[in-house]
């Protein structure tokens, strides 16, 4: 598939460049503090996710947004050929910040393009494969990037990354998504940006798993800072052994991505997220033990389960949010799920100076366990996401195992203003149910992927 090939290629270049940028700044300035700023600039644009998402929502052709973003980033990376000494470090910082903006833009655009390009029941598989490809590249690409930097210098890594961006742009041209919802909006910018959060809040299950993801990412950042203490004080090994644990965790992430699609089809989303967070809590607690096998198992559990949470959130957003709001909701979800990780890292680094790492890990595991328990609570009425959901409501219900069905009645009418699929008025009026011939149905009578998409776009308008 062209999309997964684009992810694979761009992830390789990104993983190589993210490490090489910090090494480059360190070599030019001798300052580890300035080198750390490259990482901060990469993730800082996430804070503006809702704003960037609102801009992407106004684009009528979001596949072209993906192509253009990849192409522009390739050109910007070639500017790093001008870096010659420490006076040009600002250029590296500027390109890294643009890199971060491209992450948010691409995420918002891809979130809209994927549901229009593939069937709804394959979204979980594709999101899982995307995660596996990305995490797999993190295992090898940084080593290749560091080796290329040592051999030919930072400019060579920038050229390599630029080539991968151009290749990804070409692959994105092969995507053939269906029609995407786009409507000119006259509402003020502030209200338009806030719409992303409002639409998210209107979906009870999505709201629950997003805030659960925010909690577990906070704990993940907190426990992630403990790795050197675990290696030194717990396992009595050199700091370099942290690289082994990182590789084990990365392998777990690759495996987790491959399994995610199948599991999501069999388990309801909030239950799947709850199970993932409970397993993460077990992994965090295992790191308290001064045992190499226990810590290795911990790394596998953490590597598998954190991506599961993010994959479940992404799949649910793509499945339930109308195309007209996907950019804003995606940016809001990105802010709520990734910003807490940075806060958790800061808290962990501060607490580690005054507290035993085992107490911090135990506390983090307890918070994750409580979060998992909250995920398992029943959702309540099946109409929980009904009238109060406003424009973000898709009118779709949960089938067995958490799969999202099509409309409540697949032979229902075209919906006028104020009407919802499956409402009592529609069911009780035979004359309101003309035969539909343009909608594909499966053996269970539910609308096929194209019918689901047309229905979603019609409600968004």
Q: What this model shows, in words?
A:
With 461 residues, the chain is an all-alpha fold. Helices cover 70% and strands 0% of the residues. It has 17 helices and no strands. Helix 3 (49-57) crosses helix 8. The chain is globular. It starts with a helix and ends with a helix. Mean pLDDT is 79; it is low at 382-461.
Key attributes of the depicted protein:
mainly alpha, 70% helix, 17 helices, globular
User: What value does the Rg take, in angstroms?
Assistant: 23 Å
- End-to-end CA span: 30 Å
Oligomeric status: single chain
Strand count: 0
Largest sheet: none
Shape: globular
What amount of the residues lies in strands? Answer: under 5%
- Relative helix content: 55-70%
Average residue-wise pLDDT: 79
Q: Give the helices and strands as they follow along the chain.
A: HHHHHHHHHHHHHHHHH
- What's the total helix number? 17
Overall SS class: mainly alpha
Low-confidence blocks of residues? 382-461
């Amino acid at each position: 598939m062209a999309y997964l090939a684009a992810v694979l290629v761009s992830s390789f270049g990104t993983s190589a460049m993210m490490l090489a940028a910090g090494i480059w700044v360190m070599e030019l300035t001798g300052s580890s503090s300035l080198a750390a700023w490259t990482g901060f600039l990469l993730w800082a644009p996430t804070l503006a996710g809702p704003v960037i998402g609102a801009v992407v929502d106004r684009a009528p052709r979001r596949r072209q947004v993906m192509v253009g973003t990849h192409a522009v980033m390739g050109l910007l990376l070639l500017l790093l050929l001008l870096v010659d000494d420490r006076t040009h470090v600002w250029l590296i910082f500027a390109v890294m910040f643009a890199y971060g903006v491209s992450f948010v833009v691409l995420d918002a655009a891809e979130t809209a393009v994927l549901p229009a390009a593939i069937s709804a029941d394959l979204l979980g598989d594709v999101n899982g494969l995307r995660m596996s490809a990305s995490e797999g590249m993190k295992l090898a690409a940084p080593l290749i990037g560091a080796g290329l930097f040592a051999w030919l210098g930072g400019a060579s890594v920038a050229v390599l990354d630029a080539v991968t961006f151009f290749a990804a742009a070409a692959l994105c041209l092969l995507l053939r998504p269906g029609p995407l919802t786009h409507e000119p909006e006259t509402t003020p910018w502030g209200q338009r940006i806030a719409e992303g959060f409002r639409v998210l809040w209107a979906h009870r299950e999505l709201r629950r798993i997003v805030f659960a993801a925010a909690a577990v990412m906070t704990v993940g950042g907190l426990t992630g800072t403990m790795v050197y203490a675990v290696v030194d004080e717990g396992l009595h090994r050199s700091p370099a052994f942290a690289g082994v644990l990182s590789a084990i965790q990365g392998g777990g992430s690759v495996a987790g991505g491959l399994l995610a699609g199948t599991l999501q089809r069999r388990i309801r989303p909030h239950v799947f997220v709850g199970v993932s967070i409970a397993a993460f809590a077990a992994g965090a607690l295992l790191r308290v033990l001064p045992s190499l096998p226990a810590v290795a198992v911990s790394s596998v559990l953490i590597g598998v389960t954190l991506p599961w949470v993010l994959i479940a959130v992404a799949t649910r957003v793509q499945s339930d949010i109308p195309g007209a709001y996907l950019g804003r909701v995606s940016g809001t979800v990105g802010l709520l799920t990734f910003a807490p990780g940075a806060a958790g890292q800061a808290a962990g680094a501060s607490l580690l100076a005054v507290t035993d790492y085992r107490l911090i890990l135990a506390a983090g595991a307890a918070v994750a366990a409580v979060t998992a328990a909250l995920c398992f609570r029943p959702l309540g009425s099946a109409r929980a996401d009904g009238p109060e959901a406003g424009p973000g409501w898709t009118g779709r219900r949960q089938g067995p195992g958490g799969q999202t069905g099509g409309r409540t009645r697949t032979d229902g009418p075209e919906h006028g203003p104020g009407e919802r699929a499956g409402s009592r008025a529609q069911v009780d009026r035979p004359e309101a149910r003309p035969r539909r011939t343009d909608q594909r149905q499966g053996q269970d009578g539910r609308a096929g992927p194209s019918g689901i998409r047309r229905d979603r776009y019609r409600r968004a308008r």
